[in-house]
Design brief:
The chain is 40% helix and 12% strand. It is of the alpha/beta class. It has one domain: 3-Layer(aba) Sandwich (Rossmann fold), CATH 3.40.50.2300. It has a 4-stranded parallel beta sheet with strand order 2-1-3-4. Strand 1, helix 1 and strand 2 form a beta-alpha-beta unit. Helix 1 crosses helix 6 and helix 2 crosses helix 6. The protein is globular.
């Protein structure tokens, strides 16, 4: 079938995955979307998030997640938790795990090699990352949420810098 609009922008789609989709992955979703908007390529990027479990499906992000985001100038109020499904491999160009447990789960769920090739660990993009896993702040205090958000911001900036040349339209299209 021929695309009726050959000039239609097909956005790059990335999904961030953590355990319950109320702390880490919503932070990454919001931060990455903000980076794309600030760079002027917001219409060329779709950033979403999901959890490996279904405990919080339909719920807002944890109030401490929303507060940490607000303290840094982000808006996470529209987030509603959802569970990652195998169809998300088809719907996304990149599947970003927030820790190695999520990465292992996603690799187990991947049904094809091209699905496994889409999976990466968020911190793998950040050469300054001190640890491979973004820790879960759920059972910690507000400061932990701020610390985790800082890790996510750093790794998301590194990821965005790597992807931006492919996302940005060619000069002839500007």
């Amino acid at each position: 079938m021929v695309d009726p609009d050959p000039f239609r922008i097909v956005p790059f789609r990335v999904v961030f995955v953590c355990t319950g989709n109320i702390c880490r992955s919503p932070m990454a979703e919001v931060v990455f979307r903000a980076l794309a908007v600030r760079a002027g390529v917001g219409e060329r990027v779709v950033s979403t998030s999901a959890g490996t479990g279904d405990w919080h499906v339909g719920e807002r992000a944890d109030h401490r997640t929303i507060a940490a985001l607000e303290r840094r100038g982000y808006d996470g109020s529209a987030h509603r938790a959802k569970q990652f499904t195998v169809t998300a491999f088809h719907d996304n160009d990149l599947v970003i795990a927030l820790d190695r447990t999520h990465e292992r789960i996603l690799r187990h769920w991947a049904q094809a090699e091209d699905h496994r090739d889409r999976i990466s660990l968020l911190t793998s993009f950040d050469p300054g990352a001190a640890v491979p896993d973004v820790p879960d702040p759920y059972y910690a205090d507000d400061r932990a949420f701020d610390d985790v958000l800082g890790m996510i911001e750093s790794a998301s900036r590194a990821l965005f810098r790597q992807l931006e040349p492919a996302i940005r339209p060619p000069r002839s299209a500007i």
